[in-house]
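Example record

Each entry pairs one chain with its bound ligand, thymidine-5'-diphospho-beta-D-xylose.
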Amino acid sequence: MTGGAGFIGSHYVRRLLGPKGPGDVSITVLDLLTYAGNPANLDEVRDHPGFSFVHGDICDAELVGKLMVEHDQVVHFAAESHVDRSIDGGAEFVRTNVVGTHTLVEAAHCAGDRTLVHVSTDEVYGSIDTGSWPETHPLAPNSPYSAAKASSDLLALSYHRTHGLDVRVTRCSNNYGHHHFPEKLIPLFVTNLLDGKKVPLYGDGGNVRDWLHIDDHVQGIELVRTKGRAGEVYNIGGGTELSNKELTGLLLEACGADWETSVEYVEDRKGHDRRYSVDCTKIREELGYAPRKDFREGLAETVQWYRDNRAWWEPVDKGTASRRVV
Ligand code: NAD
Ligand code: TDX
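Structure tokens for the complex follow.
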């Protein structure tokens, strides 16, 4: 697993090695521990006999080649993942998301007979005002982040078409849950509100996202790993569509804050995608996927986790997002 010390990757490891996991897996996490990677996210599994950790870079071809020989499957989460950072500078996004993904698929091809699940995003499709994208929709990414992710999807799929490598791509909507780095909307707003600070709402607050709990994303990835088909793309989503304004209202309520004193409208994100929406018919009908987590319940649990785990987020530099308050 690459990127297993991050938000979603660490949840996937904890799930697979936990009591509800398949029981017959051992996992090596390869993670560079960038600002977004936190070793504490893996504390729960550190002593599990099936767990090992390698501190390293997915762009390091020698290291990746050596590890690939020792493993039969790769679940690839590692990426630079924050849109605002990619607007401030895209170089790291091209390096990790594009060059890093190429390094992995090339090593998998050389090792032979490997399965690689490439974890991608709905943002590769662009922005959609009404309706939802099926997997066949053309890619039209708008930010350096989503353009780098789209490039990585195409590279990964090219190794299936050219070399027959067993590559499977997932494209998921916005995730929420515990251990989410507080530069993204939900954890940034919750941690600011718990500290009595303001929250920066971009533009008119009318942008819409489909929020999916990490349990449901992990469920979808696991279905694709165990039952998916080589060379196929699977959308994952079907959570709860909300405008940023609506979501902010729910977060204020959960944190006991009010709009007038806590919300600051700030300059819009450049190239801000208006709405994302994936059509999940394929994964539902082919693999039996269905999101299970009720949004209000999941959000309440998430807010409670941030209340209970200040030691996890207080030392963190919230980065670019919090600097956008005007
Ligand atoms: P994250 O930023 O929390 O974690 C990324 C992890 O990758 C970190 O542990 C980091 O240290 C590691 N990493 C970065 N560069 C690396 C490198 N060169 N070599 C090895 N490790 C490196 O990200 P996340 O939110 O957990 O997202 C995981 C994946 O899921 C990403 O590919 C992202 O594009 C995708 N995704 C995320 C969401 C979301 O809402 N967060 C939604 C859909 C898809
Ligand atoms: O301070 C903020 N104020 C604000 O209004 C931040 C950080 C965000 N926003 C808006 C921008 C978006 O419309 O909230 C929405 C959500 O923003 P993010 O949490 O940054 O997520 P998004 O840009 O939608 O991308 C996320 O989902 C898809 C992840 O970061 C990506 O990694 C994933 O691919």
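DSSP finds twelve helices and eleven strands in the chain.
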